[in-house]
Amino acid sequence: MQIEIVSPEKQLYAGEVAMAQFPGTEGSFQVLNNHAPLIATITAGSIRVRNVSGMEETIEVRGGIVEVQKNKILVLAE
Amino acid sequence: MPNLKEVRNRIQSVTTTKQITSAMKLVSASKLRRAQDSILRFRPYASKLREIMQRVAAGVDDLPNEGVFAHRPVKNVLLVVFSANRGLCGVFNANIGKQVMLLLENEYAEAFAAGKVDFISFGKKAPDTLKKRGVVFSHEYNHLIEKPNFDEVSEIGNILIKEFAHGKYDEIVLVYNQFKNAASQATVSETFLPFHFSSDAKDTGDYILEPEREKMFEMLVPKTLRIQLYKALLDSIASEHGARMTSMHKATDNAAEILKDLRLSYNKARQTAITNEIIEIVSGAEALKG
Protein backbone atom coordinates (compact mmCIF):
# COMPACT_ATOMS: atom_id res chain seq x y z
CA MET A 1 0.00 0.00 0.00
CA GLN A 2 1.04 3.59 -0.59
CA ILE A 3 1.80 5.99 2.22
CA GLU A 4 2.35 9.72 2.07
CA ILE A 5 3.28 11.80 5.08
CA VAL A 6 3.09 15.55 4.52
CA SER A 7 3.54 18.61 6.68
CA PRO A 8 2.29 22.07 5.64
CA GLU A 9 5.83 22.86 4.51
CA LYS A 10 7.03 19.70 2.78
CA GLN A 11 6.64 16.03 2.15
CA LEU A 12 8.17 14.01 4.97
CA TYR A 13 7.87 10.52 3.56
CA ALA A 14 6.31 8.75 0.61
CA GLY A 15 6.53 5.20 -0.62
CA GLU A 16 5.29 1.67 -0.74
CA VAL A 17 4.97 0.02 2.69
CA ALA A 18 3.79 -3.28 4.10
CA MET A 19 2.96 -1.93 7.56
CA ALA A 20 2.54 1.41 9.25
CA GLN A 21 2.16 2.06 12.96
CA PHE A 22 0.77 5.32 14.34
CA PRO A 23 0.69 7.01 17.76
CA GLY A 24 -3.13 7.39 17.82
CA THR A 25 -4.77 9.65 20.38
CA GLU A 26 -6.69 6.63 21.68
CA GLY A 27 -3.59 4.44 21.65
CA SER A 28 -1.13 3.16 19.14
CA PHE A 29 -2.53 1.37 16.11
CA GLN A 30 -1.25 -0.48 13.09
CA VAL A 31 -2.39 -0.43 9.49
CA LEU A 32 -1.80 -3.38 7.19
CA ASN A 33 -2.85 -4.06 3.63
CA ASN A 34 -6.58 -3.83 2.84
CA HIS A 35 -7.41 -1.92 5.99
CA ALA A 36 -10.95 -0.56 6.24
CA PRO A 37 -11.37 3.19 5.49
CA LEU A 38 -10.37 5.12 8.58
CA ILE A 39 -9.85 8.67 9.79
CA ALA A 40 -7.90 8.99 13.01
CA THR A 41 -6.04 11.68 14.89
CA ILE A 42 -2.54 11.09 16.15
CA THR A 43 -0.52 12.70 18.90
CA ALA A 44 3.14 13.64 19.10
CA GLY A 45 5.31 10.59 18.61
CA SER A 46 6.84 8.56 15.87
CA ILE A 47 5.25 6.83 12.91
CA ARG A 48 6.89 3.48 12.20
CA VAL A 49 6.74 2.12 8.68
CA ARG A 50 8.03 -1.18 7.28
CA ASN A 51 8.60 -1.26 3.57
CA VAL A 52 8.12 -4.25 1.30
CA SER A 53 11.66 -5.55 1.81
CA GLY A 54 11.28 -5.52 5.60
CA MET A 55 13.27 -2.34 6.30
CA GLU A 56 11.87 -0.22 9.10
CA GLU A 57 11.89 3.53 9.38
CA THR A 58 10.48 5.98 11.89
CA ILE A 59 9.24 9.50 11.22
CA GLU A 60 8.75 11.93 14.09
CA VAL A 61 5.58 13.99 14.11
CA ARG A 62 3.99 16.44 16.53
CA GLY A 63 0.44 15.32 15.87
CA GLY A 64 -1.83 15.14 12.90
CA ILE A 65 -4.53 13.21 11.09
CA VAL A 66 -4.38 9.88 9.28
CA GLU A 67 -6.72 8.95 6.48
CA VAL A 68 -6.72 5.38 5.21
CA GLN A 69 -8.62 4.45 2.10
CA LYS A 70 -8.20 1.73 -0.55
CA ASN A 71 -4.62 0.90 0.39
CA LYS A 72 -3.67 4.54 0.40
CA ILE A 73 -2.57 6.24 3.59
CA LEU A 74 -2.34 9.97 3.86
CA VAL A 75 -0.91 11.59 6.99
CA LEU A 76 -1.38 15.31 7.52
CA ALA A 77 1.35 15.82 10.07
CA GLU A 78 2.31 18.95 11.96
CA MET B 1 16.88 74.66 -25.14
CA PRO B 2 18.06 72.58 -22.18
CA ASN B 3 21.67 72.81 -21.24
CA LEU B 4 23.82 69.92 -22.52
CA LYS B 5 25.48 69.13 -19.22
CA GLU B 6 22.19 69.15 -17.35
CA VAL B 7 20.67 66.62 -19.72
CA ARG B 8 23.76 64.42 -19.50
CA ASN B 9 23.47 64.35 -15.70
CA ARG B 10 19.81 63.43 -15.89
CA ILE B 11 20.50 60.62 -18.34
CA GLN B 12 23.16 59.32 -15.96
CA SER B 13 20.82 59.33 -12.96
CA VAL B 14 17.88 57.78 -14.78
CA THR B 15 20.16 55.02 -16.09
CA THR B 16 21.25 54.20 -12.55
CA THR B 17 17.65 54.16 -11.32
CA LYS B 18 16.70 51.85 -14.15
CA GLN B 19 19.50 49.47 -13.25
CA ILE B 20 18.28 49.33 -9.67
CA THR B 21 14.62 48.81 -10.51
CA SER B 22 15.36 46.10 -13.05
CA ALA B 23 17.61 44.30 -10.54
CA MET B 24 14.85 44.55 -7.92
CA LYS B 25 12.43 43.13 -10.43
CA LEU B 26 14.63 40.11 -11.02
CA VAL B 27 15.12 39.53 -7.31
CA SER B 28 11.37 39.77 -6.68
CA ALA B 29 10.68 37.37 -9.53
CA SER B 30 12.87 34.72 -7.99
CA LYS B 31 11.44 35.33 -4.51
CA LEU B 32 7.96 35.14 -5.95
CA ARG B 33 8.77 31.80 -7.49
CA ARG B 34 9.87 30.48 -4.12
CA ALA B 35 6.78 31.86 -2.39
CA GLN B 36 4.55 30.36 -5.05
CA ASP B 37 6.26 27.00 -4.65
CA SER B 38 5.49 26.94 -0.95
CA ILE B 39 1.86 27.82 -1.66
CA LEU B 40 1.66 25.03 -4.19
CA ARG B 41 3.17 22.55 -1.75
CA PHE B 42 0.78 23.69 0.93
CA ARG B 43 -2.43 23.72 -1.12
CA PRO B 44 -3.02 19.93 -1.32
CA TYR B 45 -2.53 19.76 2.43
CA ALA B 46 -5.10 22.46 3.07
CA SER B 47 -7.64 21.01 0.65
CA LYS B 48 -7.25 17.51 2.09
CA LEU B 49 -7.72 18.86 5.59
CA ARG B 50 -10.82 20.66 4.42
CA GLU B 51 -12.17 17.47 2.90
CA ILE B 52 -11.60 15.51 6.10
CA MET B 53 -13.13 18.35 8.07
CA GLN B 54 -16.23 18.20 5.84
CA ARG B 55 -16.58 14.48 6.47
CA VAL B 56 -16.13 14.78 10.20
CA ALA B 57 -18.37 17.82 10.54
CA ALA B 58 -21.18 16.11 8.59
CA GLY B 59 -22.70 14.61 11.72
CA VAL B 60 -22.02 17.47 14.10
CA ASP B 61 -25.29 19.39 14.29
CA ASP B 62 -25.23 22.08 16.90
CA LEU B 63 -22.02 23.84 17.67
CA PRO B 64 -21.83 24.83 21.32
CA ASN B 65 -21.81 28.57 21.92
CA GLU B 66 -18.53 28.43 23.84
CA GLY B 67 -14.80 28.08 23.34
CA VAL B 68 -13.78 28.81 19.77
CA PHE B 69 -17.42 28.86 18.63
CA ALA B 70 -18.61 31.50 21.07
CA HIS B 71 -20.57 34.33 19.49
CA ARG B 72 -20.39 37.13 22.02
CA PRO B 73 -21.39 40.76 21.61
CA VAL B 74 -18.33 42.32 20.01
CA LYS B 75 -16.52 44.49 22.54
CA ASN B 76 -12.87 43.49 22.32
CA VAL B 77 -11.40 43.01 18.89
CA LEU B 78 -8.02 41.83 17.67
CA LEU B 79 -6.83 42.69 14.18
CA VAL B 80 -4.04 40.57 12.76
CA VAL B 81 -2.42 42.67 10.04
CA PHE B 82 -0.15 41.24 7.35
CA SER B 83 2.06 43.69 5.46
CA ALA B 84 5.62 43.80 4.10
CA ASN B 85 8.90 44.64 5.79
CA ARG B 86 9.94 46.86 2.88
CA GLY B 87 8.31 49.37 0.59
CA LEU B 88 8.57 49.83 -3.16
CA CYS B 89 5.81 47.36 -3.86
CA GLY B 90 3.10 49.56 -5.29
CA VAL B 91 -0.14 49.78 -3.35
CA PHE B 92 0.53 46.57 -1.41
CA ASN B 93 1.10 48.23 1.98
CA ALA B 94 -1.20 51.17 1.34
CA ASN B 95 -4.13 48.85 0.66
CA ILE B 96 -3.60 47.10 3.98
CA GLY B 97 -3.54 50.42 5.80
CA LYS B 98 -6.69 51.50 3.99
CA GLN B 99 -8.48 48.25 4.82
CA VAL B 100 -7.58 48.57 8.50
CA MET B 101 -8.81 52.16 8.64
CA LEU B 102 -12.01 51.11 6.87
CA LEU B 103 -12.65 48.49 9.55
CA LEU B 104 -11.88 50.97 12.32
CA GLU B 105 -14.22 53.58 10.86
CA ASN B 106 -17.11 51.19 10.23
CA GLU B 107 -17.44 47.77 11.87
CA TYR B 108 -15.28 48.49 14.88
CA ALA B 109 -15.71 52.24 15.24
CA GLU B 110 -17.24 51.87 18.69
CA ALA B 111 -14.64 49.46 19.97
CA PHE B 112 -11.83 51.59 18.53
CA ALA B 113 -13.16 54.74 20.15
CA ALA B 114 -13.25 52.89 23.47
CA GLY B 115 -9.68 51.70 22.93
CA LYS B 116 -10.77 48.08 22.82
CA VAL B 117 -9.15 47.16 19.53
CA ASP B 118 -5.82 45.38 19.76
CA PHE B 119 -3.40 44.88 16.89
CA ILE B 120 -0.69 42.41 16.04
CA SER B 121 1.35 42.56 12.92
CA PHE B 122 3.34 40.44 10.51
CA GLY B 123 5.54 42.89 8.62
CA LYS B 124 6.64 46.30 9.81
CA LYS B 125 5.18 48.55 7.11
CA ALA B 126 1.64 48.49 8.48
CA PRO B 127 2.71 49.59 11.99
CA ASP B 128 4.88 52.31 10.40
CA THR B 129 2.01 53.86 8.47
CA LEU B 130 -0.74 53.25 11.02
CA LYS B 131 1.20 54.74 13.91
CA LYS B 132 0.21 58.22 12.75
CA ARG B 133 -3.46 57.23 13.05
CA GLY B 134 -3.12 56.29 16.68
CA VAL B 135 -2.94 52.55 16.10
CA VAL B 136 -0.67 50.75 18.54
CA PHE B 137 0.56 47.24 17.79
CA SER B 138 1.08 45.02 20.79
CA HIS B 139 3.16 42.38 18.99
CA GLU B 140 5.12 42.30 15.78
CA TYR B 141 6.31 39.11 14.18
CA ASN B 142 8.27 40.70 11.38
CA HIS B 143 10.95 38.05 10.93
CA LEU B 144 8.33 35.53 9.73
CA ILE B 145 7.88 37.55 6.54
CA GLU B 146 11.43 36.70 5.43
CA LYS B 147 11.31 33.12 6.65
CA PRO B 148 7.82 31.70 7.11
CA ASN B 149 7.94 28.88 9.59
CA PHE B 150 4.90 26.76 10.31
CA ASP B 151 5.89 25.84 13.86
CA GLU B 152 6.14 29.46 14.93
CA VAL B 153 2.94 30.44 13.15
CA SER B 154 1.09 27.59 14.81
CA GLU B 155 2.41 28.72 18.22
CA ILE B 156 0.94 32.15 17.54
CA GLY B 157 -2.27 30.48 16.37
CA ASN B 158 -2.50 28.56 19.63
CA ILE B 159 -2.04 31.76 21.64
CA LEU B 160 -4.82 33.48 19.67
CA ILE B 161 -7.15 30.51 20.17
CA LYS B 162 -6.46 30.49 23.90
CA GLU B 163 -6.98 34.24 24.26
CA PHE B 164 -10.23 34.06 22.36
CA ALA B 165 -11.51 31.10 24.38
CA HIS B 166 -10.69 32.96 27.61
CA GLY B 167 -12.75 35.91 26.44
CA LYS B 168 -9.89 38.37 26.00
CA TYR B 169 -11.22 39.03 22.50
CA ASP B 170 -14.72 38.62 21.11
CA GLU B 171 -13.60 38.65 17.53
CA ILE B 172 -10.30 38.11 15.75
CA VAL B 173 -9.93 39.32 12.18
CA LEU B 174 -7.13 38.75 9.67
CA VAL B 175 -6.30 41.54 7.23
CA TYR B 176 -4.06 40.49 4.37
CA ASN B 177 -3.51 40.51 0.63
CA GLN B 178 -4.84 37.38 -0.97
CA PHE B 179 -2.67 36.03 -3.75
CA LYS B 180 -4.47 35.72 -7.08
CA ASN B 181 -1.56 35.75 -9.52
CA ALA B 182 1.71 37.60 -9.94
CA ALA B 183 -0.04 40.72 -11.20
CA SER B 184 -3.09 40.89 -8.95
CA GLN B 185 -3.82 40.71 -5.26
CA ALA B 186 -7.05 41.25 -3.38
CA THR B 187 -7.00 42.91 0.01
CA VAL B 188 -9.35 40.99 2.28
CA SER B 189 -10.38 40.93 5.91
CA GLU B 190 -11.60 37.58 7.11
CA THR B 191 -12.93 36.44 10.44
CA PHE B 192 -10.53 34.08 12.18
CA LEU B 193 -12.53 33.56 15.35
CA PRO B 194 -15.28 32.77 16.31
CA PHE B 195 -14.86 29.64 14.28
CA HIS B 196 -17.38 29.23 11.54
CA PHE B 197 -17.78 26.10 9.49
CA SER B 198 -20.60 24.68 7.48
CA SER B 199 -20.42 21.25 5.97
CA ASP B 200 -22.25 20.34 2.83
CA ALA B 201 -21.45 16.65 3.16
CA LYS B 202 -24.38 14.49 4.15
CA ASP B 203 -22.49 11.76 5.97
CA THR B 204 -19.04 10.44 6.65
CA GLY B 205 -19.10 7.74 4.02
CA ASP B 206 -17.91 4.40 5.29
CA TYR B 207 -15.03 5.77 7.31
CA ILE B 208 -14.27 4.53 10.79
CA LEU B 209 -13.58 7.54 13.00
CA GLU B 210 -11.19 7.33 15.87
CA PRO B 211 -11.75 8.99 18.31
CA GLU B 212 -15.49 9.51 17.91
CA ARG B 213 -16.88 12.35 15.85
CA GLU B 214 -17.34 15.10 18.45
CA LYS B 215 -13.93 14.61 19.97
CA MET B 216 -12.28 14.52 16.58
CA PHE B 217 -14.07 17.66 15.49
CA GLU B 218 -12.78 19.41 18.57
CA MET B 219 -9.23 18.42 17.65
CA LEU B 220 -9.58 19.38 14.02
CA VAL B 221 -10.81 22.90 14.69
CA PRO B 222 -7.57 24.31 16.16
CA LYS B 223 -5.63 22.54 13.43
CA THR B 224 -7.77 24.16 10.77
CA LEU B 225 -7.30 27.55 12.42
CA ARG B 226 -3.52 27.20 12.53
CA ILE B 227 -3.59 26.27 8.85
CA GLN B 228 -5.75 29.29 8.10
CA LEU B 229 -3.26 31.60 9.79
CA TYR B 230 -0.35 30.03 7.94
CA LYS B 231 -2.20 30.33 4.65
CA ALA B 232 -2.76 34.04 5.23
CA LEU B 233 0.96 34.49 5.83
CA LEU B 234 1.98 32.56 2.69
CA ASP B 235 -0.58 34.46 0.61
CA SER B 236 0.64 37.78 1.91
CA ILE B 237 4.28 36.96 1.17
CA ALA B 238 3.56 35.80 -2.38
CA SER B 239 1.39 38.88 -2.95
CA GLU B 240 4.17 41.14 -1.72
CA HIS B 241 6.70 39.76 -4.17
CA GLY B 242 4.14 39.77 -6.97
CA ALA B 243 3.27 43.40 -6.25
CA ARG B 244 6.92 44.40 -6.06
CA MET B 245 7.74 42.61 -9.27
CA THR B 246 4.90 44.30 -11.13
CA SER B 247 5.67 47.76 -9.81
CA MET B 248 9.39 47.40 -10.50
CA HIS B 249 8.58 46.21 -13.99
CA LYS B 250 6.51 49.33 -14.54
CA ALA B 251 9.24 51.51 -13.07
CA THR B 252 11.81 49.98 -15.41
CA ASP B 253 9.55 50.60 -18.39
CA ASN B 254 9.00 54.18 -17.29
CA ALA B 255 12.71 54.74 -16.91
CA ALA B 256 13.29 53.41 -20.42
CA GLU B 257 10.65 55.82 -21.74
CA ILE B 258 12.20 58.79 -19.95
CA LEU B 259 15.65 57.80 -21.21
CA LYS B 260 14.37 57.78 -24.78
CA ASP B 261 13.00 61.32 -24.41
CA LEU B 262 16.16 62.54 -22.69
CA ARG B 263 18.41 61.08 -25.38
CA LEU B 264 16.31 62.82 -28.03
CA SER B 265 16.56 66.20 -26.34
CA TYR B 266 20.26 65.62 -25.65
CA ASN B 267 20.90 64.95 -29.35
CA LYS B 268 18.83 67.96 -30.34
CA ALA B 269 20.75 70.21 -27.96
CA ARG B 270 24.03 68.85 -29.24
CA GLN B 271 23.03 69.40 -32.86
CA THR B 272 21.91 72.95 -32.08
CA ALA B 273 25.22 73.68 -30.45
CA ILE B 274 27.12 72.37 -33.49
CA THR B 275 24.92 74.31 -35.90
CA ASN B 276 25.42 77.49 -33.91
CA GLU B 277 29.16 77.05 -33.95
CA ILE B 278 29.21 76.51 -37.71
CA ILE B 279 27.02 79.56 -38.26
CA GLU B 280 29.40 81.64 -36.16
CA ILE B 281 32.46 80.47 -38.09
CA VAL B 282 30.82 80.87 -41.46
CA SER B 283 29.47 84.32 -40.71
CA GLY B 284 32.86 85.32 -39.28
CA ALA B 285 34.56 84.24 -42.48
CA GLU B 286 31.93 86.05 -44.55
CA ALA B 287 32.53 89.24 -42.58
CA LEU B 288 36.31 89.04 -43.16
CA LYS B 289 35.78 88.61 -46.90
CA GLY B 290 33.45 91.62 -46.96
Indicate the topology:
The complex is a heterodimer of chains A (78) and B (290).
Chain A: E1 2-6, E2 11-22, E3 29-32, E4 38-51, E5 56-69, E6 72-77
Parallel strand pairs in A: 1-6
Antiparallel strand pairs in A: 1-2, 2-3, 2-4, 4-5, 5-6
Chain B: H1 4-57, E1 77-82, H2 92-105, H3 109-113, E2 117-122, H4 125-130, E3 137-140, H5 143-146, H6 150-165, E4 171-181, E5 184-193, E6 208-210, H7 213-289
Parallel strand pairs in B: 1-2, 1-4, 2-3
Antiparallel strand pairs in B: 4-5
Helix pairs in contact in B: 1-7, 6-7
Structure explained in plain terms:
The complex is a heterodimer of chains A (78) and B (290). Chain A contains no helices and six strands. Chain A has 78 residues and is an all-beta fold. Chain A has a single domain, classed as ATP Synthase, domain 1. A five-stranded mixed beta barrel of chain A has the order 1-2-4-5-6. In chain A, strand 2 and strand 3 form a beta hairpin. Chain A is globular and about 25 Å long. Chain A starts with a strand and ends with a strand. Chain B has 290 residues and is α/β, with parallel strands linked by helices. Helices cover 61% and strands 14% of the residues of chain B. Chain B is built from seven helices and six strands; from the N terminus they run H-E-H-H-E-H-E-H-H-E-E-E-H. The mean pLDDT of chain B is 91. The interface between A and B is medium-sized, with 23 and 28 residues.
* Fraction in helix of chain A: under 10%
Distance between the termini of chain B: 32 Å
How many helices of chain B? The count is 7
By CATH, the topology of chain A is ATP Synthase, domain 1
Give the overall average pLDDT of chain B. 91
Largest sheet of chain B: 5 strands, mixed
Tell me the domain tally of chain B. Answer: 2
Specify which chain pair forms the largest interface: A-B, 23 and 28 residues
Question: Structural class, from secondary structure content of chain A?
Answer: mainly beta
Question: Which band does the percent of strand residues of chain B land in?
Answer: 5-15%
Question: CATH H-level name of chain A... which superfamily?
Answer: F0F1 ATP synthase delta/epsilon subunit, N-terminal
Gross morphology of chain B: elongated
Based on CA atoms alone, the radius of gyration of chain A comes out at 11 Å
Q: Uncertain runs of chain B with pLDDT below 50, 5 residues or more?
A: none
By CATH, the architecture of chain A is named Sandwich
Structural class call of chain B reads: alpha/beta
CA distance, first residue to last residue of chain A: 23 Å
How are the strands of the largest sheet of chain B arranged? Answer: 3-2-1-4-5
Task: Please count the beta strands of chain A (DSSP E, at least 2 residues each).
Answer: 6
Low-pLDDT sequence parts of chain A: none
